Amino acid sequence: MYLDQVKNFKAHPILYFVLPVAFLLLMVVNYIFSMGIDTNDVIEQTINQIGVNGAFILMIFPLSIGVFVVWFWVKFVQRQSITSLTTSRNKVDFKRIFFSFFLWASITIIMTVVAYYAEPENFVFNFKPQKFLIFLVIAIILIPLQTSFEEYLFRGNLMQGLALVTKSRIIALLIPAVMFGLMHLANPEVGKIGPVIMVYYIGTGLFLGILTLMDEGLELALGFHAANNLIGALLVTADWTAFQTHSIFKDVSEPSGSFEIIIPIFIIFPLLLFVFSKVYKWNNWKEKLLGTISTN
């Protein structure tokens, strides 16, 4: 059991909160300093100075190397194996990672194609082969590292630390979801759509947490998160998003907030949970999500 295995860990509980709290404090400081600043203008100025790919690397590289910081901390400070941080299984199930990745990648591509043909006036064809191929290489390397950092930090280290301290699955589920949402406060999407977009960020964190608890490991969350950010960045960009890239399409519509929030959180994610539950034969939902954690 992913959370129950914390009874075998020997590190002092406070060590599980050092990295998540430090990271969240950095995000809060960033948010405070960004208040009163037009984030879109800052991104545009950066792009003008070092180009789209340069700005993308500048933004994502610190998060991409963050996964190595988490692995180092867990391995050498907490004296815990990376496998136990990843899963309750004897070894990491890469088939689960790839299944989740390709499932969500396929759905994302289909939804983008449908949106394009339904309202083509909302999109501009942005494809430039040479620039796209260069960005493709950068994205394939950096984005999975970035998303893995967030999964290992929130659904891994923080969730296991909360399980160790509180013995409560619901607390271990909810607090990382909220912190995951808060780390996006400085994103330009918040300024464009409004604070209501936090429902999407926190809801996504909740969805990823449910995947982790029900499947007893991070594999499905790792695959989904990588597909969400990578395929999204390759397919569509917009002037008001955090990731502005050499994507295939550019969205020139005004976001309403309803599609970006209601459809994924209340329709698509529950359907995905249903699909995963059938594929991996999940059961005992109440105990896995709301029960207590045995440390005996």
UniProtKB/TrEMBL annotation:
GO terms for molecular function: metallopeptidase activity. The chain crosses the membrane at residues 14-34, 54-76, 97-118, 130-149, 170-187, 193-213, 220-241, 261-280. InterPro entries: Rce1/LyrA-like_dom. Residues 131-231 form the CAAX prenyl protease 2/Lysostaphin resistance protein A-like domain. It comes from the Bacteria. The keyword Cell membrane does not apply. Keywords: Hydrolase, Membrane, Metalloprotease, Protease, Transmembrane, Transmembrane helix. Pfam families: Rce1-like. PANTHER family: MEMBRANE-ASSOCIATED PROTEASE-RELATED, PROTEASE. This is CPBP family intramembrane metalloprotease. It comes from Flavobacterium jejuense.
